Hints:
Blueprint: E1 3-6, H1 10-21, E2 27-31, E3 42-45, E4 48-51, E5 58-59, H2 63-69, E6 78-82, E7 85-89, E8 92-95, H3 107-119, H4 121-124, H5 132-140, H6 142-157, H7 177-186, E9 199-203, H8 209-218, E10 223-225, E11 231-233, E12 238-239, E13 243-244, E14 247-250, E15 259-261, H9 265-273, E16 276-284, E17 294-296, E18 306-308, E19 320-325, E20 337-345, H10 351-364, E21 367-369, H11 371-374, H12 381-395
Parallel strand pairs: 1-2, 1-14, 2-10, 7-17, 11-15, 14-21
Antiparallel strand pairs: 3-4, 5-9, 6-9, 7-8, 11-12, 12-13, 16-19, 16-20, 17-18, 18-19
Helix pairs in contact: 1-8, 1-12, 3-7, 5-6, 9-10
Amino acid sequence: MKYLILGAGPAGLTVANRLREMGEESFYVLEKEEEAGGLCRSAIVDGKPLDIGGGHFLDVRRPEVNDFLFQFMPMEEWNRYDRISKIRLGENIIDYPMESSIFQLPEDEQIAHLLSIAKAGCNTGQKKPEKFSEWIPWKLGEKIAEDYMIPYNSKLWSMNLDKLGTYWLEKLPNVSFEDTLRSCLKRDRVFESLPGHASFYYPKEHGYGELWLRMAERIKDKIEYGVEVSELDFTRRIINGQYKADIIINTIPWTSFETIRGVSEKFLDSILSLKSVSIVVKYYDEPVDTDAHWMYFPDESVEYHRILYRCNFCPGAKGYWTESNKKRADLEDGHWHYVNKYAYPVNTIRKREAISYILESAGDRKIFGLGRWGEWEHYNSDMTVLLAMQMADRLLGRS
């Protein structure tokens, strides 16, 4: 075929449907699982949908993406929500993001945070450090670092934090002492850094995975399920010694290939340097006393780092699910659970250089990486869809 697409998650499904939409029929999709959706799949648990890959929602910010997706699942099948997310700090619960919500803490905690922000290295002209554990307090102050950012990231990544780069956090704004003080005095948000998914869509009657199942249905004649991609021949562009294409679009983890032929040692070393974490999703049938859609838990004595309160965005559902790094999760506690081997790519110090070399070398052979795993970036699904649409347009000369 002309185009061979590895993986039927959001990236693979989007590029395949976009190709067909523009009249291209010489494409084929290989998927390891028995159904499409990747990390955005859903399952029926306790009578209602639960997203087994963790919390995924459709952001409202990209109308061109949503218009494309609404072809498969019309807008009237979605509810729109204004995001309510919170952080639990000991006995206190405040709104996310933390730097905008310090006024919600007890007075003595507010004072401690203000003093810490005033002394933050980015506000006092100190040289920016390179180590993650030093960069966070330099950027946000010791108090936010100690109470939230350091323990939360320790739980999420479950690794030595100084192995992480800081490049992926550069977009964080400096925390202003003046604005934070004004916020505490007025007891209100006088400044706001809106997070991703500030407003989002979620299906009225289904889990998020329903969208991707419908996209797969449109191209069902072009998808083969139950195929574990293990061998890649770079020179001849052949997968598993069986599937040959002019162009390969890879949306699966580079580290999942058992054999890659026709590449340099540097290429293989670059792949070996890529790291990812596994996440366990657990379901709890318990009443919920919050209006939050999800909540972050930096407390290291708690197994999970986040709770998704599905009853607050999935009509008719009860209970909630948690997300934990697999290294921290108790899989024998009797709760329904699902293990995602590949959940988050890790932004290690070497990652940018490694993935740049991989993508450049592969691209020279007409093998293109796409999406969270093909590009080893923590993209949300809406960004993944946008990039996949753009790739299809480029391949067909429409951009």
